[in-house]
What we know:
By secondary structure, the chain is mostly helical. It has helices at residues 2-12, 20-28, 36-46, 51-65. Helix 1 (2-12) crosses helix 2.
Amino acid sequence: MKHLAAYLLLKLGGNDEPTAADVTSALESVGVEVDSDRLKSLLSDLEGKDLGEIMEEGKGLLAKMGGGGGGGGGGGGG
């Protein structure tokens, strides 16, 4: 997830095609360790794909999962 977050931040910052070196630099600059195998896999999966379409697909998958946790219990009386 950290690799994807860094990739997206780089895209939002104007880097149209973040490389493994870009993502690594961004993560290491804030003290985060990079898993180079996972990063390579992520970049391979994203290669040639439209980010907007990927985001829309992701929203659809999240909607299917549902949500809504139970509410917290009320405070105890005293």
